[in-house]
Write a structure and sequence with these properties.
The protein is of the alpha/beta class and 221 residues long. It is built from 9 helices and 11 strands.
């Protein structure tokens, strides 16, 4: 998996790049926002580790540009600003995840692995649609029959994963692998709760169905 690390703090960038390469990742490094866009255009990147406070062009501007162009890589925002408003603002720009500095290296690795699992077929399609439910995976918006849906990150992740299955069943364990990073939350009960709230927000008639031993799917009965 190829990573693009965008970080202007030289010592931090060098240390992270060295550690990630030891983990087996291919790592490109950019020191500013303009260089980040050039590096992204020059190679196929799976995950971008994007510092929000960058010279020349801010991380926000880089994220906004990549998302508007439909660039397929997952974006993990790295920033010293860790308030709830900061996290929401970063995610609203189109970032897939957000990690506040200082962070534990093992948590960074876990976030990268989770984002890496979510690259591929589902991400290569900008829009996923089935049974009147539509998700734009680049703009991070969802709707049913043209009406917008206000979803939490977990609800959006579950819906995205189910739609990517194109009517097939997705097990609770697979949903945990795709959507949940937090070890303490990785239980089937948590999946059941999120699916319940997602069904409620999607309204009637129900489009998320379950079958014992198979999991969940989006489609008609």
């Amino acid at each position: 998996m190829r990573l693009l690390l965008v970080e202007d703090e030289v010592d931090l960038a060098d240390a992270l790049a060295e550690g990630l390469r030891r983990e087996g990742y291919l790592v490109d490094v950019a020191r500013d926002g303009a260089s980040a866009l050039a590096a992204a255009a020059a190679s196929d990147v799976d995950v971008i580790l994007l510092d929000r406070d960058l010279p020349i062009l801010s991380g926000d501007a880089v994220c906004r540009t990549l998302v508007s162009q439909g660039y397929p890589a997952r974006i993990l925002m790295l920033t010293a600003a860790g308030t709830l408003d900061d996290r929401v603002a970063g995610l609203d720009l189109g970032a897939d995840d957000y990690l506040a500095k200082p962070f534990a290296y093992v948590e960074l690795l876990a976030r990268i692995r989770a984002l890496g699992r979510r690259t591929g077929a589902d991400r290569s399609r900008a829009v996923l649609e089935h049974s009147g439910v539509r998700v734009d995976v680049v703009r991070r918006v969802a709707e049913r029959d043209g009406a917008p849906l206000r979803l939490t990150l977990k609800e959006f992740g579950v819906l995205e994963t189910l739609l990517a299955a194109q009517g097939g069943y997705v097990s609770a364990d697979d949903l945990l692998d795709e959507v949940w990073d937090e070890p303490q939350e990785r239980t089937r009960g948590v999946v059941k709760i999120v699916v319940h709230t997602l069904r409620r927000k999607l309204g009637s008639p129900a489009v998320i169905h379950s079958a014992a031993g198979h999991g969940y799917r989006v489609g008609e009965l």
